[in-house]
UniProtKB/TrEMBL annotation:
Lineage of source species: Bacteria, Bacillati, Actinomycetota, Actinomycetes, Micromonosporales
One Pfam family from the record: Atu4866
Protein's name in the database: Atu4866 domain-containing protein
InterPro entries the UniProt entry points to: Atu4866-like_sf (IPR038646), Uncharacterised_Atu4866 (IPR020955)
Organism for this UniProt entry: Actinoplanes sandaracinus
Source species, domain of life: Bacteria
Length: 122
């Protein structure tokens, strides 16, 4: 027996952001400026410096030379590598080859579910 229903969406192939957008009725990306089709551009001067989460679990140092160093509580090996800026994100590449996206939003960095603030303000 067939039942009428809305369009079927297979959630197993969608990432969390896509599912959230569907749940919110197709809401715009919260990191995009309102009323603009263009992504914000982040400059090096906006991100260079020391960052940390308010609880001190994550610490990140972005240097002017394009390298970074980071610490995560409970992780034995400190993170080191290079970074580059792409649109509104900072992309970290660990010495082991691991890539991490860091989003810049309202003077804070969002990385793997952690909000990082400038170390002097944390």
């Amino acid at each position: 027996m067939a039942t009428p229903c809305a369009t079927h969406v297979d959630f197993t192939v969608l990432d969390a952001a896509s599912v959230l957008a569907i749940a919110m009725g197709g809401a715009a990306d919260p990191y995009s400026p309102p009323g603009s089709g263009r992504p914000r551009v982040v400059t090096t001067t906006a991100v260079v410096g020391a960052w940390r989460s308010p609880d001190g679990v994550v610490k990140l140092q972005l240097r002017k030379d394009g390298t970074y160093a980071g610490e995560v509580s409970g992780r034995r090996r400190p993170a080191r590598g290079t970074y580059w800026i792409q649109g509104e994100s900072v992309l970290l590449r660990d010495d082991s080859g691991l890539h991490t996206d860091v989003h810049v939003h309202d003077g804070e960095l969002e990385m793997a579910g952690h909000r990082l603030r400038p170390a002097s303000a944390a």
